Every structure is written in C-alpha cells, then in structure tokens.
Amino acid sequence: MVSWDGNGGDGMDFRKSIAELLSTRTGLAADVLAASVEVPPDPALGDYAFPCFPLAKTLRKAPPAIAAELAAGFSDGAAPFLARVQAVGGYLNFFLDRAVFAGAVVRDVLAAGERLGATDEGAGRTAIVEYSSPNIAKPFHVGHAFTTILGNSLARLYAHLGHPVVRMNHLGDYGTQFGKLIVAFEKWGDEAALEKDAIRELLRIYVKFHDEAKDDPSLEDAARARFVRLEERRPEELALWQRFRDLSLAEFARVYDRMGIAFDDYSGESFYSDKIPAVVEMLQAKGLLEESEGAQIVRLDDEKLPPCIVLKSDGATIYASRDIAAVLWRKERYGFWKNIYVVGNPQSLHFQQVFAVLRKAGYACADDCVHVGFGLVKFADRKLSTRAGDVIFLDELLDESVAKTREIIDRNAELRGTDMSEAERADVAEKVGIGAVQYAFLRNGRDRDLVFSWEEMLDFDGETGPYAMYTYARARSVLRKAEAEGAAPADASDADLARLGGDEEAAVARLLYGFGDAVRRAADANEPYLLTRQVAGIARAFNKFYNNQSILSAPDPETRRARIALTGAVCVALKTGLGLLGIAAVERM
RNA sequence: GGGCUCAUAGCUCAGCGGAUAGAGCAACGGCCUUCUAAGCCGUGGGUCGGGGGUUCGAUUCCCUCUGGGCUCACCA
What we know:
Elements: H1 14-26, H2 30-36, E1 48-51, H3 55-59, H4 63-72, E2 82-88, E3 91-96, H5 98-112, E4 127-130, H6 145-160, E5 165-168, H7 176-188, H8 191-196, H9 198-215, H10 218-231, H11 235-258, H12 269-273, H13 276-285, E6 289-292, E7 295-298, E8 308-311, H14 319-334, E9 338-342, H15 348-360, E10 369-372, E11 377-379, H16 394-416, H17 422-442, E12 450-452, H18 454-457, H19 465-484, H20 494-497, H21 503-513, H22 515-524, H23 529-548, H24 557-580
Parallel strand pairs: 4-5, 4-9, 9-10, 11-12
Antiparallel strand pairs: 1-3, 2-3, 6-7, 7-8
Helix pairs in contact: 1-2, 5-21, 5-24, 6-22, 7-9, 7-10, 10-11, 13-14, 14-15, 16-17, 19-23, 19-24, 21-23, 21-24, 22-23, 23-24
This protein binds one RNA strand of 76 nucleotides through β8, α14, α15, α16 and α19.
C-alpha cells in the first residue's frame, strides 16, 4: 500500500510509487521517472501515465512497443493500489483501484479536518507579507482591493504551511501631503464633517487645497513649512497628523473587519523616517553613494538598472530610502525568511532597485525579498482616477454586492419556504456578498490587469464565490439531515468506503487528493488562484455527483454511509480552501 | 528608444515540453412530486497574434516581427 499522509504531506504520493515500480523495470532513476509521470487529459485514459517516447532512442525501439512490453511486466497484483496498467500508443497508462483510492482520500480528509493540506514545513521561518498599504486621508477604493485580498490570502497560505507570519500594513502616512492637509484643514476644515466621515472630508479639503494653490502658490510653501514642523515633531502639527491618521485607520478597519482581514504591524512611512539617516551613512561608508545633479544616488549599472535616488537634491528622503531602511529594520526585528511585497506591477522597477542597492551593500537578505506584483484594476474604457472622481469605494462595492445577494436570499427563501431569520439573512448576505468580491480577485493569475465591471462582479452564476459557498451550504444541508437521522461522516467503515467506485465519486476524490498540492503550489508561486481553481473544481465535481446520485436515499446502507462520508470530506475541503482564500463559508444560503 | 509584461472560443480566462487545446459567461435546447435550480445535462463556437528555429513531439522553449499595457531620477 502506498504510504499515506492525511495532512497533505508528501506521503500519499502515487506518482512516486509508480515511478518506483517503473524504476525496477527500466533501471532508470525513480526521481527522473517521477518527473515524467503525468496525469492524462481524460480520466478514461487512466489516473497516471508514463510517456515512453524519450526511451525510444536509447532502447532503439518504437514507443508503442516499449509501452506494450512494460505493460506486460505489470501482472495482476503488481501493486495493491493499481487496478490495471494498459499500453495505449506510446503511453503506459495506470488505473488506480478506485474504491481503495476514494476511500483512503475520504478517510484522511475527514481526519485532517481544518488542517487539510497543512504542514509544519515553515516552522521557524518567518514570512513577512506587506499588503494593502493605503494612503492615509485618501479613499480606500477598488484599486486597493487587489493587494488587500491577495495579500490576505498569501498570509493565510504561508501560515497553513507552518510559517510564522507577520502581516504588515505599510501605511502611506507621511510626506508633504500632510503639510497640505494641515494647512487646508486650518483654513477650510469642518470639524463635524471630519468626525462623521473623515476620509471624505479630508479628500474634500485636499482637492480644495489643489484648486486654491493654482492661484496662490504661497499655499505650497506653507504646506512644506508645516511638514518640516511635523518632522520636528511640533505638538500642533503632530496632534493634527495623529488625528488624521487615527480617523483614517478607523475607517480602514471597518473594511478590513468586513473582509476578515487583520494586520500585526502598521508601521508605515512615518515609522521608518528616523531610520533613514543611518542607512545613508551606511551607504556612504561603503562608498556606494554618489552625487548626481544635486541628488545622492547609487549607481546600478552592473545590475543593468537605472540609478537609485536615495536623497533628493534638496536633501529630503524618498521612498527608495524608506524602503531600504524598512528591509534592514525588518531583518533585525523579525529575521525574516521571506519579505514579501504585495504591490502593483508598476512598482516593479522600484523594488528591483531597492533590492539591488541592498545586494551591493552586501546584505544577503536582499535575495529573500520578493515583489509579488499584480495587474491594475481599471474600467473597460478608462483608468481608475482619484482626481476625476472616478473612484468606486471598496465599501460601496461590498455594499452593492451584499445588497444583490440579499435580494437573491429573500427570493429563494420565499421560493423554498425556508425559515431564515432577519439576522441570519443579513449575516449570510454580508458573507456571500463580500466573498463574491474577494473571489473575483483571486480567480485568475495576478499578473493580468483586471477590468472592473459591475455586471461581472455581481454575476453569481457559474464559477464564482457564491457558487463555491452555495455548494458548501448544500452539502452541509445534507449532513444536517443525516445527523438528524443519527448518521455522521465518521460512521463509514473501510468496507463502506469501498463503495465509492462511481465516476462522479472518483472525480470528487481525485480533486480532494490534489488539495494539499494546490495549497503548496499556490504558496510557492504566490498565486492563490491555483487553490481557487482546486476549490472550484471540487465544488463542480460535487455538484455533478449531487445531481446524479442520491446521498441520503442511496441504494443501500453501506453506500449511504460512504456517500455521507464523501459529502463530509467535501465540506472540509471547501471550508478550508475558502478560508485560505480569506472567504467565509455559510451553513445556509 | 531601453526594460518588464501580455496576446488562446463572441467576452473573461485556465492550460508542469506530450494524447482529440479546456472552463465559466453569453447563445440555443432540456431537467425542480425526490438531499437548496446561486444547481445539473446537452448543442454550437478555435489558422492558440504572424513568421522562423530547437525537438520523436511546441499553445508551452529560443529568435524575430506586429499589436496592447506598465515603466525608464528627485510622487509613492
């Protein structure tokens, strides 16, 4: 029997077992063979396949002949987990014993529970994930959704793999813009409006400032002067800055709470500001700094990158110097294994420069810094623009989605005659509506630009967040009925589980089996969509099973117990998978 | 102009060098006296941007061209 590790580790590896069987028959190294063992495009062709084409040259035989010969070497009982081995063309196809396979998968998924796919391989290796990082006093719009949702999922994935995780929100809470806000608030600020809706009020006076500054350049000077005083930590300026920051954070927190997102560290730009002089000194001491056009720069010609500006010609710091200081501080504070930046693709060059400067300065940790970029969120016909007022607040988007969900819930409740309370309807609408938005950002690879469309965002048909959540709710509904009749997933015996040999059941089992691998691949590539697809696949396979087979009215008690167990395993996988994407599961919808 | 990135069905996108290129949406046709129809089943739909090359085999790797997007010093 194949060794089996229900926690999703490397134990239950049929590919490896097959490679070992092939190794004894061909004399080739098992790990080399494992690399070429693949999964056929159609399950009817088998569960695994070994292409014999590469052997043709060394064996001086036609691939189909090699496949046929190898197949003959696999007599019945070559391995207990194999039902049969068949040569088709140049391929050697392996069929797993379905009942053994499905039964083993279901048993182990149920045993793993919410630890499905979890490992402790990351123990002692801290992963820092920097994400969201909004600017204080600016609207939190859909453009911020990508980094926030993506980063949240990555943090959860790393934690699932055993890494200590530090979730960092690198707030944009410093700079001349605060001088502007201080000037603008003293001139035109509205106390009541600030208390009521801080960001809208701050945005209003910020826009007002720019309008007025066109006719009155002295405003810009005043703003610079106030920022200098802020840097000197004068009480008056510091108090206003602190207030703007606190009020903004409180508003951000509302959105974060709704999405189940939290941070361990809110050290933003202001925090690193006093750590920059030491960095400049260090670069100077290492002879890396150079003056050019009045600015202090580090040349990166040998890295084939444009020079990195560390100090502006007026001596002020710039975001590159802040980010360099941040890496060094984080290394000292957390001793990170990986320092991950979930920041849009347009900043790719910036991070290359920052990492290159650190490398030149001799810091090995530069190689542990990773920029995880992603595409822009834009409208079909134009860019998202704060200035043009073309923003959709993330809150508004969530509200729309929740409202749409609520309509569907009410309609369905009437149709089905269910007894959902007002409180439950509200709770479910909130979770499903928000899950739909989160899912939309995790459905595809992160590199592509995401064209925002209300229509698509609020379409809950097909492969969407609500689809996966609906499937879970449906499966839970079956289990509740089973429980009411005294049956539970854990009741199934090995003999019962041997009944899971049908096409639909095997398809579900295959996808459940791939769960752990999907989690690891998603983390390795920093691509949560790899897990999203696995979750969607499990949901689709279960729906197909659900529509074609009876669970509670199965033909016999053994099959019924087995199918209840399978349904339980699907619930475990869906809830765990959605959780890793940052999406809540609901019991009814 | 340099760099990065993308180009696959009408639309949005998957596709670790391997079998007949897949999914969802949209379109069309079916399925609620039986476990939730936000579901399931079926049909149609493709010169994988163009051209070379490597390979037993290329949507996948290399080169080149075309066309988008982002970026290239004092905003982040």
